[in-house]
């Protein structure tokens, strides 16, 4: 049982505390504005001149004062209550604020000693912001305390809940911008509180920051009447606490009271669940913060209102170098914060500014929860020998690969029952994807109502199902970034919904790898199943293998794509992925009965190679092959081996090499990807001058793109999915896309020199088989017996 929440504290701040809170907030505002504008003269020790101003003014001022207010008041409650806390900054373009606050608390200088907490360091802080060779304008990985970039809006609340899962003593504050609140993913994320376990999970405190405007328009939630907004938030299961105003001391007082009220309610809900066994889902608090956009900035510029309008969104004064009036206005704005009261002659923050800041790892920029690699423990992946399927002869027995993997995941779930650092997420598909063995070890997280017909629902469960791929992705990202492990299981066609999210995570990992102070985190692992070739029952809408193409366009040091052809290779690939760090691993594997090709030992060796010759499947006799049959993916592998079987029968004199590819990046040159082959390796495997008939799981053009620089590329002929889908039989799917065994044999006849004349009868036999297939399925609704009953040793 987690420890009980810390004692409640409702002591209102004294006038002295309010004074120091305001000093801290003003200092943060000054530093945020300074980062947008100043190259030099950071303490305004002389009048501003054009050469003190950056030549290009970039950044976002509008949200910064509100974020600074939240940071300041989180400091107060963290210090007073001794909280472990993390904040997810949804308006990630408010980077100036989080950079300013981490510099004030000292966590930034600890990570970057050259940006010291003095005038010299302040100059570097200002200069580097949105400057060549410097740091981005968003709350990027370079910013201590961050787990959320925020460049693409919509994912902050999902990340916050992911961070809170299995972190019972952690408070995760989440600032949600009112523009972000309009996105679909954020709207779905409000339902995450129906999955938050008050016993084993931490708490999430959403702070909805309504400053009224996006880039050029008002925001929806800011224009709702307060009563209607309250109805919406209460409908989501939250109890709103409002803070509204533009007079600083009054807002400070109201914000302090709101924070205390919210945290008292959270502590009470956790105590009721942990000590009294309360089972009713709490109504968690949400703070609704209404402050002006661009608060404390220029009220008017060139006769146009700015503060509290959309014009404050980015840079309120844009012509400072060239317009003397703008320069004077900027200097007046910066001096309004009275920097001489906030920093000493050396540029160090004075005692009043530092007073609200908690100590050590309780500082938001220093919390190890925002550098999850410091907290991660190795996952107890058991020996694969306990789960491997026996293979006496290849291609004679069948298993459902993901069902076999499900047994492994169930063991991991059992072995992490006490440490609670592994989660399985997916959009309502765990059982559909044949992973239901995990329910013997953990139920499905659920805090809403239950009925007698429900199965496997458990308020303390660690399987997460919700019909929102965005929320599944966000949960898992937040979970991994705070030091835990997980797997995302999804239908292949619909993982595209998170294309943008995985893109952001890959960028985060790539940047993090270049930061020595960020420790490696557990990899983001996808299991894509219910794939294109076995969505024959659901039809065209469920047939899309293109996620692999999307991922392989990304940073090569981060992305990995695996297509295991059977159950044992899936086990081997999963073992590697679950143990790995700082990768995005995409595993595409079938859930339908699939032939077993390799023993576990053979699978381990083959997966370690990533691509290799299956000597038992070919007919090479020590010389060079006449043709190479290559394959990647479970269904293409079966069709390739069936084609090799037909070639043994009808063209026994032909020398055939069969190559299977598990690790798709092996096809890339070694200069382009860490897993890529040298030209020497590639040419040895695929030859430089023989036809290569490549049966591929996805869109065929990807293989051409990966291999276009190879010597033998002109001999490469790829068959794959070409958008010829419908509701039909399994074999008809491959026939429609010319990936079937008969078509592959025809390709061999067409492309091996001399065969077109000598093997005309064989080619005709294959074409006739395809014709028989079309007639058969339309009469019987099932595949030809010679296909349905085929095995390697038949």
TrEMBL record:
Residues 591-792 form the Xylulose 5-phosphate/Fructose 6-phosphate phosphoketolase C-terminal domain. The lineage of its organism: Bacteria, Bacillati, Actinomycetota, Actinomycetes, Kitasatosporales. This is Probable phosphoketolase. InterPro entries: Phosphoketolase, THDP-binding, Transketo_C/PFOR_II, Xul5P/Fru6P_PKetolase, Xul5P/Fru6P_PKetolase_C, Xul5P/Fru6P_PKetolase_CS, Xul5P/Fru6P_PKetolase_N, Xul5P/Fru6P_PKetolase_ThDP_BS. Keywords: Lyase, Thiamine pyrophosphate. Its cofactor is thiamine diphosphate. SUPFAM superfamilies: Thiamin diphosphate-binding fold (THDP-binding). PROSITE patterns: PHOSPHOKETOLASE_1, PHOSPHOKETOLASE_2. Belongs to the XFP family. NCBIfam families: PRK05261.1-1, PRK05261.1-2, PRK05261.1-4, PRK05261.1-6. It comes from Streptomyces dubilierae. Its EC number is 4.1.2.-. Residues 14-374 form the Xylulose 5-phosphate/Fructose 6-phosphate phosphoketolase N-terminal domain.
């Amino acid at each position: 049982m987690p420890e009980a929440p810390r004692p409640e504290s409702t002591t209102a701040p004294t006038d002295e505390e309010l004074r120091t809170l305001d000093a801290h907030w003003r200092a943060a505002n000054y530093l945020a504005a300074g980062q947008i504008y100043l190259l030099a003269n950071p303490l305004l020790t002389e009048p501003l001149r054009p050469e003190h101003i950056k030549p290009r003014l970039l950044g976002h001022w509008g949200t910064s004062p509100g974020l600074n207010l939240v940071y300041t008041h989180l400091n107060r409650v963290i210090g007073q209550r001794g909280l472990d806390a993390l904040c997810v900054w949804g308006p990630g373009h408010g980077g100036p604020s989080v950079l300013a606050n981490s510099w004030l608390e000292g966590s930034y200088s600890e990570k970057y000693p050259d940006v010291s907490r003095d005038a010299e360091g302040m100059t570097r802080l200002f200069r580097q912001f949105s400057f060549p060779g410097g740091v981005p304008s968003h709350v990027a990985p370079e910013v201590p305390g961050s787990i959320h970039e925020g460049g693409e809006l919509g994912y902050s609340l999902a990340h916050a809940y992911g961070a809170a899962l299995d972190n019972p003593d952690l408070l995760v504050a989440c600032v949600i911008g009112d523009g972000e609140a309009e996105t679909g993913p954020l709207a779905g994320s409000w339902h995450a509180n129906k999955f938050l376990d008050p016993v084993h999970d931490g708490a999430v405190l959403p702070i909805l920051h309504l400053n009224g405007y996006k880039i050029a328009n008002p925001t929806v939630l800011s224009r709702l009447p307060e009563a209607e907004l309250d109805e919406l938030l209460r409908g989501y299961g939250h109890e709103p606490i409002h803070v509204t105003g533009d007079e600083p001391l009054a807002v400070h007082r109201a914000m302090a009271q709101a924070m205390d009220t919210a945290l008292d309610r959270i502590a009470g809900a956790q105590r009721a669940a942990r000590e009294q066994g309360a089972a009713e889902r709490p109504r968690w608090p949400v703070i609704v913060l209404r402050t002006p956009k661009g608060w404390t900035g220029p009220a008017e510029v060139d006769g146009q209102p700015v503060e509290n309008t959309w014009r404050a969104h980015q840079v309120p004064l844009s012509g400072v170098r060239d317009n003397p009036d703008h320069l004077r206005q900027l200097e007046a704005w910066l001096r309004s914060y009275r920097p001489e009261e906030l920093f000493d002659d050396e540029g160090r923050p004075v005692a009043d500014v530092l007073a609200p800041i908690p100590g050590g790892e309780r500082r938001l920029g220093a919390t190890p929860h925002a550098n999850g690699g410091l907290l991660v423990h190795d996952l107890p992946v058991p020996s694969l020998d306990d789960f491997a399927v026996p293979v006496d002869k290849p291609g004679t027995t069948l298993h459902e690969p993901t069902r076999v993997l499900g047994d492994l995941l169930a063991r991991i779930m059992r072995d992490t029952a006490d440490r609670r650092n592994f989660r399985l997420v997916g959009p309502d598909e765990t059982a559909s994807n044949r992973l239901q063995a995990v329910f013997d070890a953990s139920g499905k997280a659920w805090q809403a109502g239950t009925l007698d017909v429900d199965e496997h629902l458990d308020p303390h469960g660690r399987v997460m199902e919700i019909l929102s791929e965005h929320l599944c992705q966000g949960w898992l990202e937040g979970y991994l970034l705070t030091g835990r492990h997980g797997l995302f299981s999804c239908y292949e066609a619909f993982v595209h919904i998170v294309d943008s999210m995985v893109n952001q995570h890959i960028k985060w990992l790539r940047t993090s790898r270049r930061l020595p102070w960020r420790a490696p985190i557990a990899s983001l692992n996808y299991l894509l199943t219910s794939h294109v070739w076995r969505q024959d029952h659901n039809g065209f809408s469920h047939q899309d293998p293109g996620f692999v193409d999307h991922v392989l366009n990304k940073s090569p040091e981060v992305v990995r794509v695996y297509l295991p052809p059977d159950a044992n290779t899936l086990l081997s690939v999963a073992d590697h992925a679950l143990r790995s760090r700082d990768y995005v691993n995409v595993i595409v594997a079938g859930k339908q009965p699939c032939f077993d090709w390799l023993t576990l030992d053979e699978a381990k060796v083959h997966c370690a190679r990533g691509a290799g010759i299956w000597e038992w499947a070919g007919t090479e006799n020590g010389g060079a092959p006449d043709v190479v049959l290559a394959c990647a993916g479970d269904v293409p592998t079966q069709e390739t081996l069936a084609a090799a079987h037909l070639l043994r029968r009808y063209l026994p004199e032909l020398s055939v090499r069969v190559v299977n590819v598990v690790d798709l990046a092996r096809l890339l040159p070694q200069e382009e990807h860490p897993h890529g082959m040298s030209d020497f390796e590639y040419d040895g495997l695929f030859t430089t001058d023989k036809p290569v008939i490549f049966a591929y799981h996805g869109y065929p053009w990807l293989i051409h793109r990966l291999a276009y620089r190879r010597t033998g590329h002109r001999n490469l002929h790829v068959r794959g999915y070409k958008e010829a889908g419908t509701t039909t039989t399994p074999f008809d799917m491959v026939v429609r896309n010319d990936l079937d065994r008969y078509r592959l044999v025809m390709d061999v006849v067409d492309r091996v020199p001399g065969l077109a004349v000598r093997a005309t009868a064989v080619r005709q036999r294959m074409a006739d088989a395809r014709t028989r297939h079309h007639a058969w399925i339309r009469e019987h609704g099932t595949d030809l017996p010679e296909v349905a009953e085929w095995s390697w040793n038949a």
